Amino acid sequence: MLKRIHIQHLTLGMYLHEFCGSWMDHPFWRAKFLLKDPKDLARIQATAIQEIWIDTDKGLDVAEGTASMSREEVDAQIETDFSRLEELPPVKVKLPSPPPPPKRDRKPADMHSELKMAAAICVKSKEAVVSMFNEARMGRAVDSAGAQSLVEEISDSVTRNPGALISLARLKTADDYTYMHSVAVCALMVALAKQLKLKEDQQRLAGMAGLLHDLGKAAIPLAVLNKPGKLTDQEFTVVRSHPVEGFHMLKEGGNVPDAVLDACLHHHEKVDGSGYPDKLAGEGISVIARMTAICDVYDAITSDRPYKRGWDPAESLRRMAEWTKDHFDARIFQAFVKSIGIYPVGSLVRLTSGRIGIVTEQSPTALTTPIVKVFFSTKSDLRIPPEVVNLAAPDCNEKIVAREDPERWRFPDLDELWSGFSDKVW
């Protein structure tokens, strides 16, 4: 049986099933193992992780009367919270107002058309971010005008159709991660800022924060940044230095808004005060840093890394919901889920008919009724001709009954099914 417990109740002999937090919060390259070594216990207790899942069928249970929650109890609470999202009023926040951007053409575009334009933006953006990181490694200032132009292009794409670029940017290889992560977080920040009803100039400020938040990784040795296995404690410390390194790079270069500097320095802070580098808590963390923290973690856990495969988008949101009371601003997280959907594009789901499909687009009317391309029947255990099902259509009797784990099914063409691209586009 799976139980979620506080880390203070973790003891030798327990079987660790999962950390309640992203793998950026700890130096362990694996999550499932029997806890036998006192050094491992000490290392876990020294991390920012507050809760952990144990499997009592494979190891020791907690003492009787110790507070814990079962997987069923946690899932039921999350599903209840998600079901109420559409009833919640918009979250109101404030950001500083930078100079107004020029007027641009951002007419709405259908998903298919915007995917083609987004692919071209991804190619251009990756080249620009690679150049930006190389310049930073050589001690040169960031080209703020060039970065602003890139943010405007990304923002325009998100305005035309938010699902396209956000979803494409997730399809990065482990080698591309550092650079395309900046592009993805930029797009996510713009979408979140729109959901928060921020002004256009503030949306671009949020996008700039997303684009530059990880610049400090230019100071991290590539051998450490791309290491495929477990980090040593020293290497983990080096990686955790990137917010401060990035802050100094941007501060010394000049022409970067204070809000962007703050997001760079504090995007790994947590609302419970267990983050870094300054252990800020709650309202002590700026709104833009709280926004960046959510977008940063979501893209990190849904992307393939040198040491771990990315999680399914819908499953990632479910897990992030578990961590919210410790990690994230709950109201901004609710707005984030609204901005990308409870079942984001690329999520693998099962319908009432027993068919399995991939989410291809969000519905403009409801968070729980996206457009799904079904392609597999669990009743016959066979692939079926792909069919697009609009769950929001008045005559549709289908609904999503479960998230599915891509690792279990190992369909080789999931990304092609929703994107239409047979190969990586950049």
TrEMBL record:
| GO MF annotations, alphabetized | phosphoric diester hydrolase activity
HD domain mapped to chain residues: 178-301
CDD domains the UniProt entry points to: HDc
TM segment ranges: none
Which SMART domains does this entry report, sorted A to Z?
A: HDc (SM00471)
Kindly provide the name given to this protein in its UniProt entry: Nucleotidyltransferase with HDIG domain
Organism of origin is Acidovorax delafieldii
Q: Which PROSITE patterns match?
A: HD, HD_GYP
Q: Which SUPFAM superfamilies match?
A: HD-domain/PDEase-like (SSF109604)
> Which residues are in the HD-GYP domain?
156-352
Q: Disordered: where is this region?
A: 89-109
In terms of domain of life, where is this protein from?
Bacteria
